[in-house]
Automatic annotation (TrEMBL):
This is tRNA pseudouridine synthase. It catalyses: uridine(38/39/40) in tRNA = pseudouridine(38/39/40) in tRNA. Residues 168-289 form the Pseudouridine synthase I TruA alpha/beta domain. Belongs to the tRNA pseudouridine synthase TruA family. GO terms for biological process: tRNA pseudouridine synthesis. Keywords: Isomerase, tRNA processing. InterPro entries: PsdUridine_synth_cat_dom_sf, PsdUridine_synth_TruA, PsdUridine_synth_TruA_a/b_dom, PsdUridine_synth_TruA_C, TruA/RsuA/RluB/E/F_N. One of its GO terms (molecular function) is RNA binding. Its EC number is 5.4.99.12. Substrate binds at Y122. It comes from Scylla paramamosain (Mud crab). It is an enzyme of class 5 (isomerase). The active site is at D56 (nucleophile).
Amino acid sequence: MVAKSLVYSVLLKSGVQKQREEHEALFVSVGGLVEKGLQRLRPESIEQLYFSSRTDTGVHAVCNTAHVDLSCQSEGLCYEPSAITNTLNRFFKKNNAEIRVHKTILVPSTFHARYDAVSRRYLYRLAVTPEPTSGGRAALEKFMPVAEIGKLYLVRPPFDVERLEPVCRLLEGIHDFASFANVQRKGDTPRETLREIKSVTVTPGRPLLDPSQDPLYSHLQFWDVNVHGKSFLYRQVRRIVGVLVGVAQGRFNLQDVQHMLDYPSQRNWSPKVQVAPPDGLFLLDVEYPLHVFAEGEDSGQRPQE
């Protein structure tokens, strides 16, 4: 067995977990595409392909990691890390997959991409629109610049960002975030909901293009929500953003958030708050102890055409 770690970016509108289309044999998830790309190396077997973070469909990853054990018939190092990087990137480009592997690293057989991570950083991009004269959610979409489709959450005013500082400080630290977790079905294995949030910040954001290139940008006020922690519950970051939006819009307050933390329960999610959609969420970075990557890095060169 040779353990390898992959560092990659993906803007594909698919989740990480491998799945099949109902009427197609091709894998459409990130995990499925990575596995199919690895098959181009013709290994004896592909075992234990694990990702550091399982992102939902619609969530973007600027940087994510995975590890895999590749078995071959001969002893020793079967695959050069740079060969894995180049083979995967050629496969992704040929199949028009918006995934790129930055580097492949040889790691100890004990390494685990998910459990050895010491922190993860997420960015959530949102923008405040003018007040629509009428209509619901669909009325906001007329303010969406084309370049931002699928990468931005539009929210309506009022949006008082000054209300958010005490909420961000309240969310930081070690808490039982059961109120921010999905409701478990009867019979599911109980999960640990204690998590540590290292920081939550809300800062002015910016558009993907120069505002002069699309007149719709002139109507929007951009904000970035940055969340840093070791690990997160399923959709926890999106629920945190939903709470912040609710507070900024005046539908929720600091005492409501305090109540959710003081009385943690999977059924204590407030109907006043909407879970933020996946579109604006980006996994920015996954951090590991430095000694894990002390050897075996590839050259990082681009795949040959």
